[in-house]
Amino acid sequence: MQNYLEFEKPLAEIEGKAEELRAMARANPEMDVEKEAAALDKKARDMLQGLYKDLSPWQKCQVARHGDRPHSSDYIDALFTEYSPLAGDRNFADDQAVMGGLARLNDRPVMVIGHEKGSDTNSRIEKNFGMARPEGYRKAIRLMDLADRFNVPVVTLIDTPGAYPGKGAEERGQSEAIARSTEKCLKLGVPLVSVVVGEGGSGGAVAFATANRVAMLEHSIYSVISPEGCASILWKDAEKMREAAEALRLTAQDLHKLGVIDRIIGEPMGGAQRDRDATIKSVGQCIEDILNQLAPMSREDLIKDRRAKFLAMGQTGLAA
Fold first, then answer.
1. Which one in 78, 101, 126, 267 has a CA-CA gap of 20 to 30 Å to 247?
2. In terms of residue numbers, what domain contains 109?
3. pTM, entire model
4. Which tens digits make up the pLDDT trace of 148-170?
């Protein structure tokens, strides 16, 4: 069953009517409704194309947060073989919002690390909606250390509203853990590739995405703060999130122009949630292409390349 976003409601009505006609035909085989249903299908395709032709930044936020988009676990299951999950930060606990382990990508050994939001109510609560605690970032640091020691490339999948802001997380050093994870990314002597597959929220995303190359799905977002949070601070009104989304330059297209990201990965018409397999395949191909480009580089060159990338940010891009 397709879950529709707010701006997709007209589309839901048309696709619903087409399905009703086909349901009636299944109940009564003598009815011939295929011509009418096909006309509705064409109308729905045209409307879908029109809706997604020029999405606003706020609409892209809604698409990026769609519950049916593939999550890190889906990418790992589909793209990686011999995945061996590694748990715990060897200090406090295992954070379910961060998953990772050794695996193979088309027989290439890699360390894959990702935020995991969960796919239903129970798993979302268990995964804390993808909001990592300090132990999640310390687990990621441990896995990156392991990859560096054995000269294994690191792939990170970003999908988080941001780091968890709870009292316990702050008491256990949330800011320090994020900073240490970001520092570890910068110091890695192996290729580091990051893909924003949904939300890339605040330092919780940067802690995994300080990479040699950063790619984003076409309708994903990457921002220092959520539009709602920005609106609450600037206008004291969370309902100004549409204006905040415009101002934040959080879309893949804007961030590519600014030089914050390196690649935009196309999504199927209607977003990743409408063709999960095609989206996963595109992400896998992008990761492989980037790893092939980075493979000949020495440890020293990889570190210099990463450092130069981030120091160059803000020197070119959109006019204010």
1. 267
2. 61-311
3. 0.90
4. 999 999 999 999 999 998 999 99
pLDDT band at 317 (very low <50, low <70, confident <90, very high): very low
Q: Are 45 and 75 members of one domain?
A: no
Q: Would you say residue 236 lies in a domain?
A: yes
Q: What is the residue-averaged pLDDT of the chain? A: 92
Query: Considering its fold, how many domains does the chain have in total?
Result: 2
What tokens appear for 278 in the block?
């095609």
CA distance 42 to 250: 32
Residue 150 belongs to some domain of the structure: yes
Annotate the chain with DSSP letters as a single string. -PPPPGGGHHHHHHHHHHHHHHHHHHH-TT---HHHHHHHHHHHHHHHHHHHHS--HHHHHHHHT-TTS--HHHHHHHH-EEEEE----SSS---TTEEEEEEEETTEEEEEEEE---SSHHHHHHTGGG---HHHHHHHHHHHHHHHHTT--EEEEEEES-S---HHHHHTTHHHHHHHHHHHHHH-SS-EEEEEEEEEEHHHHHHHH--SEEEEETT-EEESS-HHHHHHHHTS-GGGHHHHHHHHT-BHHHHHHHTS-SEEE---TT-GGG-HHHHHHHHHHHHHHHHHHHTT--HHHHHHHHHHHHHTTTSSSS--
The one-letter amino acid code at 151 reads N
pLDDT at residue 319 in the model: 43
- Considering the domain architecture, whether residues 182 and 307 belong to the same structural domain is answered as yes
Residues 138/91, Cβ–Cβ less than 8 Å: yes
How many other C-beta atoms can be found within 10 angstroms of the C-beta atom of residue 137?
29
Average pLDDT over residues 214-225: 95
Same structural domain, 23 and 145: no
In the predicted structure, residue 41 carries a pLDDT above the cut 80? yes
